[in-house]
Design brief:
The complex is a heterodimer of chains A (279) and B (101). Chain A has 279 residues and is mainly alpha-helical. Chain A contains 10 helices and 7 strands. In chain A, a hairpin with a 2-residue loop joins β3 and β4. Helices cover 82% and strands 0% of the residues of chain B. Classes of the chains: A mainly alpha (279), B mainly alpha (101). The interface between A and B is medium-sized, with 29 and 21 residues. Chain B: This is SoxXA-binding protein.
Chain lengths: 279, 101
């Protein structure tokens, strides 16, 4: 009888341990996600996913290509460069806060700061740079911050996105939180980010053609025709939440930064193409 | 018959049900507080439609229209309860659809 009990307990432990250890690594998630989209769109080259809906629909693509002759974000990028290079009151510039003077670094954002135990997005780094130099922070969603971010992104165009999740439980937790947010249904319409961008990319939702998960953050900040101006990724997050009647969270909240961390990791290896245009 | 005593007795008898019955303002305040706290309990799963109803309830109450205020607060409470249920369900349900789980 005792023997039987020991055997049962041993079987239980043997079954429970792999269960507890289950859960894929960020890199396993990314590879599986890329494979999923490759199977969903076998005719689309993987690098093309950074162009979102323009990679999936010929009509939209041809409109976009015409628009690229005179991209509507050009003036904002020029303004962003001017602001980036203009010294603060203390004589320093943004370049003093960033690796390589802030040129060609977009592909490394967001990153996990293991000392502060938080995800640092490019926009957060821009505003922290301002505050460290005695300047007032900028609004998060549009205007000056989007222009500076767009200029910085433009210096990284073509560089492969390179997000790292360090071997650190807090970093992994931030990544997992972002993943949970992406796949959790929200709002009265009961939609998750994945409902549209994993399960239904390439399909129309009213007048919007849904883009796939991978490549999404590569083109931000983005000039949307709907906005008539540049906006940041967190502005878009808030808009998506609002569309499904979920209360948007504040831009640069921990939840949105973790979401950006997960989402950008999924695009690792794809080129930065921001700033870009979208309908 | 002692007339003053009878009058006092009648007045007291009439005031009992009035005292026991809360006014529309108090009813609304209780309902609103419940709706608001349930909405808060939804955390990052709050719904915009709940916020809209709460706002409409507050405006109607400020205008003294407690009938409308109560109706809006009732709707807000129902919506908030659904959002809390969604939050609880999604704690596990997201794993069933996530790539890489």
């Amino acid at each position: 009888m005792l023997k039987a009990k020991v055997i049962l307990v041993a079987i239980g432990v043997a079954l429970a341990v792999p269960q507890a250890q289950a859960g894929s690594t960020p890199e396993e998630d990314r590879k599986e996600t890329v494979e999923y989209f490759k199977q969903m769109f076998p005719d689309v080259a993987i690098e093309e996913f950074v162009n979102g809906q323009y990679a999936l629909d010929e009509d939209r693509r041809s409109q976009w290509e015409s628009m690229q002759d005179f991209p509507p974000y050009e003036f904002a990028v020029a303004e962003g460069q001017e602001m980036f290079e203009t010294p603060f009151a203390n004589g320093k510039t943004y370049a003093s806060c960033f690796e390589n003077g802030g040129i060609g670094v977009r592909q490394n954002y967001p990153y996990f700061d293991t000392e502060k135990n938080e995800v640092i997005t490019l926009e957060l780094a821009i505003n922290r740079c301002r505050e460290a130099n005695g300047e007032e922070p900028l609004g998060w969603k549009k205007g000056a911050i989007a222009s500076i971010s767009a200029y910085m992104a433009s210096t990284s165009q073509g560089k492969p996105i390179s997000i790292k999740v360090p071997d650190d439980p807090d970093a992994l937790a931030a990544y997992q939180d972002g993943k949970e947010f992406y796949y959790s249904r929200r709002g009265q319409l009961n939609f998750s980010c994945a409902s549209c961008h994993v399960q239904n990319p390439g399909k129309w939702i009213r007048a919007d053609l849904l883009s796939p998960t991978i490549g999404q953050p590569a083109n931000f900040p983005v000039h949307r025709s709907k906005w008539g101006e540049l906006g940041t990724l967190h502005r878009r997050f808030a808009g998506c939440n609002n569309n499904v009647r979920a209360e948007p969270l504040p831009a640069q909240s921990e939840e949105y930064r973790n979401l950006e961390y997960f989402l950008t990791y999924m695009s690792n290896g794809l080129p930065v193409v921001g700033p870009a245009t979208r309908p | 018959m002692n007339k003053p005593l009878l009058t006092i007795g009648v007045l007291l008898a009439l005031s009992v049900p009035l005292a026991a019955q809360a006014g529309p303002k108090e009813d609304f305040n209780d309902l609103y507080a419940k709706a608001q706290s349930t909405h808060k309990d939804a955390g990052t799963f709050q719904w915009t439609v709940t916020s809209d109803r709460l706002e409409a309830a507050k405006t109607a109450a400020a205008d003294g229209d407690y009938e409308k205020a109560e109706a809006m607060a009732n709707e807000a409470l129902k919506l908030a309860e659904e959002s809390v249920a969604q939050r609880k369900k999604q704690q596990e349900a997201w794993r069933n659809v996530a790539i890489g789980n």
